[in-house]
Amino acid sequence: MFIGIDLGTSGVKVVLMDAQGNVVATEIAPLQVSRPQPLWSEQDPESWWQALDLAMQALSAQQDLRAVQAIGLSGQMHGATLLNSANQVLRPAMLWNDGRSEAQCRELEQKVPDSRAITGNLMMPGFTAPKLLWVQQHEPAIFSQIAHVLLPKDYLRWRLSGDFAADMSDAAGTMWLDVARRDWSDVMLRACDLSRDQMPQLYEGNALTGRLHAELATRWRMNAVPLAAGGGDNAAGAIGVGMTEPGQGMLSLGTSGVYFVVSDGYLSNPQRAVHSFCHALPQRWHLM
């Protein structure tokens, strides 16, 4: 048995599956989005955790989770979750659909003229890097305290296991990843006055990043199982429908819509608004 955790924009879903991938049970806990100003879209990371705990308790009340062997994570991409050196959240997370950082996008592309070649993408307000530049310029007291920058699902990972980790597919949506090399780009980080020390450790999506805290295992009546790195929502969904080999493609329609194609090498065409990301599998990339 396995558990999948998906941190969506409108809710947290947990799915219990058997070894053949058949869904045994599902629980969902809703989330709310805060829009305090035009173009802003935020959520409190604590609400993610409370929703996950609620869903897991509901699942464990109905199912015997002692046979679960591992947990995998997926979720909304691009969100900026900022922690200080005491691992306290510094401000509400700025989400993928937050549009306040248009000016910072232009500034970053001017600072790093070859940013599109490095990241495989046009700089857009939805991505993480321009959000951090906005924080630096508009909330400098918060920016000066940043010790860790986590993507939404990886904040849940930290709460689950204490590990600061990210998978390649989600990291590719930050605009700090050298997508061809599958490593953080020091050039892109410096453009935001950030460093590798503030970034999570990178893993391929099928790698194990840590183990569930013993107290959570007790709370949810299961074993302290390992956590898989997982993937961003599009990459994880693609694997779920079998998009793993070069040339395979799919059309995904949800809160947003994308055409997704798998590649076995880094291909970049941002000038035509084609996004290039690492897939959630080793030696695979995808275009959207």
What does it look like?
With about 290 residues, the protein is of the alpha+beta class. The protein has one domain: Nucleotidyltransferase, domain 5 (2-Layer Sandwich). It is about 30% helix and about 25% strand. It is built from ten helices and 19 strands. The strands form seven sheets. A five-stranded mixed beta sheet has the order 3-2-1-5-15, sandwiched between helices. Strands 16-17-19-18 form a four-stranded antiparallel beta sheet. β10 and β11 form a beta hairpin. The longest helix has 18 residues. The relative contact order is 0.14. The model has no long low-confidence stretch (mean pLDDT about 95). InterPro entries: ATPase_NBD (IPR043129), Carb_kinase_FGGY_CS (IPR018483), FGGY_Carb_Kinase (IPR050406), FGGY_N (IPR018484), Xylulokinase (IPR006000). GO terms for molecular function: ATP binding; D-xylulokinase activity. Belongs to the FGGY kinase family. Pfam families: FGGY_N (PF00370). This is Xylulose kinase.
